[in-house]
Amino acid sequence: MKIENLQKGIDQQDILQDINLTFKQGEIVGLIGRNGSGKTTFFRSLAGHYELDQGKIFINQEDIQINKILRQKIFYIDEQYNFLSSYSLNKLLFFYQHAYAGFNKEKYLSLTKKNKLHPHLKYRAMSKGMQGLYKTILAICSNAEYLLLDEPLDGLDVIVKKNVLGILLDDVSENNRSIIISSHNLNELESIIDRALILKHTRIQLDYHLEALRENARKIQLVFKTKKVPTLVKENSQLLHFQGRVITAVFENYTEELKTLIQAEQPILFEELPLTLEDVFEANLANKNEVNSLGGVIL
Description:
Blueprint: E1 2-10, E2 13-22, E3 28-32, H1 39-47, E4 54-59, E5 62-63, E6 74-76, H2 89-99, H3 105-114, H4 128-141, E7 146-150, H5 158-175, E8 178-182, H6 186-190, E9 195-200, E10 203-209, H7 210-216, E11 218-223, H8 231-236, E12 238-243, E13 246-251, H9 256-263, E14 269-273, H10 277-285
Parallel strand pairs: 3-8, 3-9, 6-7, 7-8
Antiparallel strand pairs: 1-2, 1-4, 4-5, 9-10, 11-13, 11-14, 12-13
Helix pairs in contact: 3-4, 4-5
């Protein structure tokens, strides 16, 4: 899937601008952003629930706004506006079989039976965890090439969550399809995604391949003799916390040369800490002037 210059506004307010992305098959991508940053609008735009103000979306070099049947290659259930509540699982199976020509009924029946989801059960009568599990089963059985999952793990207990993740990861491995997933739990995302997109101020500000990030980035805690932060550190890092004289920062392009230059500033403390996706999120999405009275960055 290739997205070119996607733009979308709602009520005369720009929500998404200049979105240019390519998603590869077999890739799990995390979409990260604050509440209200446009993640759901992005999913709705890709799924065709919103008409684009500008831009094009291609699958296999074909414009999906022209060749409408290509929308069957995209699966998305809108968490806010969907028709699932009133129907039994048996009826929902009927709908999705007709919506997706490649729907795998045999796999659907196997997974629903394995997870004790009775066909006559009504969707609204299920717990939130079971609803999340059921939507995951619908997604992979649709046989769509691109699964758009908006907070699919939200509110699930540990056992159901593990089950949902297992189903998703097994499916990606077997079928080489792509998943674009948003979640507020960055620790969960970090364990499954290959790539992270950071959406901020209507644009994709950063596009990380986690393997490269882990190789090149470092989280360092530093203490200098005075409260003044050396220019070298300011210019080459993103501040996480600054309390007293203790500085914690993320260096995204960390090299041995940079390490030598920092050590030449004679820090009293120089300690490398484990770097998480949450650290990267905080460093990039917190404004530099969002500092509390103790000097810590507020998310």
